[in-house]
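Quick illustration, no need to memorize.
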Amino acid sequence: MSFYFTDQIQQSFNKIFHQCNKDIAWEGKAELDALVKLDEEGQKIPGIGDVYAILARVYSGPQFTWIEAGFPEDDTKAYSYLHTAIRKGSAIAILQAMRTSGALTPTIEKELPMTKDQAFQRVYEGAQKGCSYCAYAIANVFQWGDYHILPSAQKVANEGEPSTFIRFLKGLFVQADQRRFANKITAIAQQWLRKSAEAGLVIAYRNLRITYVEQNNSVMEEQVIFEGAAAGLPLMMYLAGDICKSRGEHERALEYLSAVPP
């Protein structure tokens, strides 16, 4: 079932991001490349902007997918596809561009088919319905601070916050209040990363782990590592194996390390 992409695009996306078999991932990429070719030939493809957005991420390097997939890194194609995605109306591409250095050039800013806040609203709706990639994109908005410039994201961040007068009183204790709010933002990011991972996006475990590392929360970090390993993410298999090895659980460590795809 698809909650944001078309069913056809969702199936290809799942092959790339919802599992960690290299051959299957390349099959998904080939399917999206074929849709791009049809678009270039002038055929009308529903959701084609999202196809370009997904491929822009694929071509951005292993840190944006999973290294064992072996996708070629091509910055020129990544930026070109991201700009095409935006021009073709992809809301999620706009949020991606906010996370991509130099992507929102003055020219592209003028050509945005919707405001950044409208893009956030569309993707947020997809995340609420259960789209793994939308949930991941929303988590990034909070994890990396983009919520500061998005009114709708600020509204989410400020839900349950005290009145102006109470905030004034809390302002007398600025550092403590800032820490509390920062923790709240991290919790929102963690919530959406968790939903993303549970909806099938295996790389969400990677970002989720980072949040716990930054909090020095080794208990939750370890939990996420083993969850990610169970989901098949190679990085988490390596880390799970190392944890087991450090505990003297050599047989279990071997199970994790031998399961890592070549």
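The two ends are 31 Å apart (CA to CA).
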